[in-house]
Amino acid sequence: MQLPSSGAPAAPTSPAPVLSPEVAEALAAGRPVVALESTLLAHGLPRPDNRAAADEVEAAVRTGGAVPATVAVLDGAPHVGLTADELDRVCADSDLAKLAVRDLPVALALGRSGATTVSSTALLAAAAGIGVFATGGLGGVHREAADTFDESADLTTLSRTPVLVVCAGVKSILDVPATLERLESLSVTVVGYRTTTFPGFYVADSGSTVDWAVSSPEEAAAVLATRRGLAPGGVVVANPLPDDEQLDPALHDRVIADALAAAARAGVRGKAVTPFVLDHLHRASEGATLAVNVRLVLRNAELAGRIAAALAGVPR
Ligand code: PSU
Ligand code: MN
């Protein structure tokens, strides 16, 4: 299939992101690069296991045929592509801030450090000219949103940022149908990977469906390239775990209900909710949710690598 131009349209930010040497070289040569977020490492996975996961996720991008570029803010500088020492720092620091787009100006202006969420990673990836990005699950509409108004800035950012995000749907601690409705209102393109069943993060089926499926990395790349020519905003590629790799759905429903009740009892609010609930799940399931979480991120990273390779026109 002949794809339209593979380079990302310029979406410069000031200050410009600091690129690692490998990422700078790959981008200059037009080779495929995949952005990775750091919030899932710093706030979604427990220390010290998160450090090994960081390497595994980067290796999965390479298996897919692209160069990994983990994104974070270090001492006020936005970094796209981290060295091993920088990954050590992001994974070890228990005080690292969680930075969505609205937090970036403060961290950059005041010389602070932080992990980037889907929203801020998407912004910085686009600024660096990277079109493809992998995460675990998108943020979205929280189950109590009718009372709390808690909806992740991931959604509004994807409505204006020209990136393709590979994810296992949205985190199943959220209100999945409401999140899909918001993605529709925000005109974010959503496709399933080889299925119209919308995944439920830890489980293969969220109970919701999407209208479209792509059947190959080339088709996903063509959708992104076409979106860029049409309208601002991004593409979500929802990549479910295979049935035999998902969390047992009965265990899933039980531990999620417990974790949400614990968050409510503890009075956890705002951006602390997602890390609190993920941590509770990892402990309540004796590591089962953690293993599945890492597995789905690895699968998404590899698929993102293949999509980035297709976008760059690299034959595989
Ligand atoms: N995917 C994971 N684990 C995570 C996240 C995604 O497997 O921890 C993070 C992402 O960084 C996402 C954030 O942007 O959770 C959403 O947080 P909030 O609900 O506060 O917007
Ligand atoms: Mn929130």
TrEMBL record:
Substrate binds at K98, V118, S152, A153, D154. InterPro entries: Indigdn_synthA-like (IPR022830), PsuG (IPR007342). Its cofactor is Mn(2+). Binds 1 Mn(2+) ion per subunit. One of its GO terms (biological process) is nucleobase catabolic process. GO terms for molecular function: hydrolase activity, acting on glycosyl bonds; metal ion binding; pseudouridylate synthase activity. Its EC number is 4.2.1.70. It is an enzyme of class 4 (lyase). Keywords: Glycosidase, Hydrolase, Lyase, Manganese, Metal-binding. The keyword Lyase applies. Gene3D superfamilies: Indigoidine synthase domain (3.40.1790.10). Pfam families: Indigoidine_A (PF04227). Mn(2+) binds at D150. The active site is at E37 (proton donor), K171 (nucleophile). It catalyses: D-ribose 5-phosphate + uracil = psi-UMP + H2O. Belongs to the pseudouridine-5'-phosphate glycosidase family. Catalyzes the reversible cleavage of pseudouridine 5'-phosphate (PsiMP) to ribose 5-phosphate and uracil. Functions biologically in the cleavage direction, as part of a pseudouridine degradation pathway. Homotrimer. This is Pseudouridine-5'-phosphate glycosidase. It comes from Geodermatophilus siccatus.
